[in-house]
Design brief:
heterodimer, A: mainly alpha, two-stranded antiparallel ribbon, 14 helices, globular, B: mainly alpha, 2 domains, 4 strands
Chain lengths: 336, 341
């Protein structure tokens, strides 16, 4: 029994799960409204698109690099898609069905992701530097050639607005407001499930772990580093594109500045969920837990009476704490 | 020509880039660009990014990273601002003591923040980028909590005068910056600590087994970086007459860019710190130039990004060519040897 417990405690996802449980208990004692159905549905909706982003961040992190470009890839794809479709809609009255809207954004994301792959595998740039600069380039290209003005709900593609207004499993809460599950949660769930199976049971997924664990060994086994990198960054780009369009649909306004400076928040969530920053280890379950944890904290600080000014502080402490636990776990494993 | 050949390769490359950029600006907007006032303001403006680039440079040397620098600078500004606001006598009689206290407090904050970073990196064993991401949020959070997100300002005239002071045509702050910069160059390239820092950056396992105290080097590195960041905080106070918890967050990207452009690799151990001054000047010329050409800051960042990629790609190609040449030479030598080939 003791052995099993220890095994669970050594799991990298264990920390975030334990923290989620502890914090939920603490929050619900501080304010019983925490477990309100509205609050839970709200939390899930808020988590949905960061969760999708996080899946993309995870695969790049597992392959051994820190991606700084995914937010701008997401914004670029979503903004371009919304802008092009809104122009078509205004001038020709063409209404694109939702799956095609999502697909278009994902394709743009894939193309941008392959730029990253080119920089990393052809010119041997460190992933952090390559994606940091490519993010800035994507941003500049978007503002210069595509646009920098907001696209308001009246001009947005109709299907995206419909998507954002849909609620599943509708029910009315105690005070009469109608609450329900937002479909973006299902999109996020689908992405997570697909990624879980991809990472765990396919050769492509295992090659991502391999490349992050030991590059030269991976090459000797017979994987092509270039092709694997291309696959990783294109997949990450497609996921970022999907996350971007889901995020923009949720907000109903395509604001090109919306995702600015939020790369590290999502990356931190992924790391808190147990993905090792040096690569080779991590899981979708951990990512889901990490994103949930960071959002539970940032969403509910006000609810338990902490000023929003302290949010940064709490978030920083959380990162340090989670990373410290991981560091200590690694040291203990090393000692064994 | 002989001098050029004897100089560090990167310095020559950077010198060409700087001169070319300078020439380009003279050609495009010579009348405004060459004005003494513009030259002066460029010298004035390069101090903060320069100090931040120095922070990243030492962190890079150790194969680390310090994302917390701007937060440290803002924390210094905010704490000092509160001190000045609450403790200054209305008649300004104690301003001298207070400003001296500000400097002491700034350096103490820098050291303490660096100490915290180093503790998590070397004692707890967390990856530097993750530690400094956390502490970045913590330091900024402290500053936010202290000020409730408001800006501190209205500093005493003496501080602003100090910021505006000039010796001849050169701003005093720039001269002080060059002094600090020289100290850093000497420390990294001429002292035992500097050598150990570079060795640790290129292979920390080897330095550990040769008996070099890696944790000690790590502590010194991040405390040094913290002190430079806190000096930048003082400069920001004197220059802008305000301090805010979330001021200038894009400085980190610029500092990373400056270092990589100067050939100081994030993979540790390589590069010459004195090249940094050239890349600082080059970037200052570019950003002043963009201002004059009325290019928006967002486009500026994206051009910086492109510059960064281009400079690394040039590095990569030249290194590849050198490696191939050496390879060929080695093969030739083998063939010429009797019995070889």
């Amino acid at each position: 029994m003791n052995g099993t417990l220890r095994k669970i405690a050594y799991k990298s996802e264990f920390l975030s799960l334990a923290l989620i449980i502890l914090i939920s208990i603490a929050f619900s004692i501080a304010n019983p409204a925490f477990f309100n159905i509205i609050n839970v549905f709200d939390l899930l909706k808020v988590c949905s698109y960061p969760m999708i982003f996080a899946c993309g961040v995870m695969i790049v992190l597992i392959s051994g690099g820190i991606d700084m470009s995914f937010m701008w890839i997401g914004m670029f794809s979503a903004y371009t898609t919304s802008k092009v479709l809104s122009i078509f809609q205004m001038t020709r009255g063409v209404v694109m069905p939702l799956p095609l809207v999502f697909l278009m954004s994902m394709l743009i994301g894939t193309a941008l992701g392959s730029v990253n792959a080119l920089l990393v595998s052809k010119f041997k740039l460190p992933v952090f530097i390559a994606t940091l600069s490519s993010a800035n380039i994507f941003m500049g290209v978007m503002f210069q050639f595509i646009g920098s003005e907001y696209i308001f709900p009246a001009e947005m593609p109709v299907r995206m607005i419909e998507f954002s207004k849909t609620l599943l499993f509708k029910m009315s809460s105690a005070d009469g407001t109608i609450v329900g599950l937002h479909p973006s949660v299902l999109v996020a769930l689908a992405v997570c499930v697909i990624m879980h199976f991809l990472m765990k049971y396919t050769l492509a997924g295992r090659s991502i772990y391999a490349i992050g664990g030991d590059q030269s060994a991976t090459e000797r086994v017979g994987f092509s580093l270039g092709k694997t990198r291309l696959f990783i960054f294109m997949l990450a780009g497609a996921i970022a594109g999907l996350a971007g369009i889901v995020g923009v649909s949720n907000i109903q306004v395509a604001n090109p500045y919306d995702f600015q400076n939020r790369e590290l928040t999502v990356t931190a969530a992924v790391v808190i969920g147990g993905t090792r920053i040096t690569g080779g280890s991590g899981s979708v379950i951990g990512v889901v837990l990490g994103v949930l944890l960071t959002n539970i904290i940032s969403q509910n600080l006000v609810l338990i009476g902490i000023q929003p000014e302290y949010g940064k502080f709490v978030f920083g402490i959380l990162i340090l704490f989670a990373a410290a636990v991981q560091g200590i776990q690694a040291k203990l494993r090393g000692r064994k | 020509m002989k001098i050029l050949r004897r100089m560090d390769k990167k310095s020559v490359q950077l010198l060409f880039i700087t001169v070319a950029l300078f020439g380009l600006m003279v050609w495009l907007r010579g009348d405004r660009f060459l004005r003494p006032k513009n030259m002066e303001s460029m010298l004035f403006q390069l101090v903060e990014p320069g100090l931040f680039a120095m922070c990243i440079a030492v962190a890079y040397m150790s194969r680390g990273m310090d994302l917390s620098i701007v937060s440290i600078a803002n924390l210094v500004g905010v704490v000092n601002g509160m001190l000045l606001r609450t403790q200054l006598n209305p008649d300004g009689s104690n301003v001298g003591i207070l400003l001296a206290a500000c400097v002491v407090i700034a350096i103490a904050i820098g050291l303490a923040c660096g100490l915290m970073n180093a503790f998590f990196i070397s004692n707890v064993g967390i990856f530097p980028i993750l530690v400094t991401l956390g502490t970045q949020n913590v330091f900024m959070g402290i500053a936010m909590a202290l000020t409730q997100g408001r800006a501190e300002g209205n500093f005493p005239q003496q501080l602003l005068d100090f910021g505006d002071a000039k010796i001849g045509p050169v701003p005093l702050l720039t001269i002080l910056f060059l002094l600090v910069f020289t100290v850093l160059c000497v420390v990294v390239h001429k002292t035992p600590y500097g050598k150990k820092l570079q060795w640790m950056g290129s292979n920390s396992k080897v330095t550990w087994f040769t008996g070099i105290d890696n944790p000690k080097i790590t502590y010194a590195t991040y405390m040094l970086s913290g002190v430079f960041a806190s000096l930048a905080g003082l400069v920001i106070m004197a220059r802008t007459n305000s301090a805010k918890a979330d001021y200038g967050t894009t400085y980190v990207f610029q500092a990373l860019l400056t270092c990589v452009l100067a050939g100081i690799s994030p993979l540790g151990g390589t590069g010459k710190v004195y090249n940094l001054i050239l890349s600082i000047v080059a970037i200052q010329i570019t950003s002043t130039g963009f201002n004059m050409l009325r290019i928006s800051p967002l486009i500026r960042d994206s051009i910086f990004g492109a510059l960064l990629i281009i400079s690394i790609v040039i590095d990569f190609v030249s290194r590849n060519r050198r490696a191939r040449r050496l390879n060929r030479a080695a093969i030739r030598q083998l063939k010429e040897q009797p019995g070889g080939g």
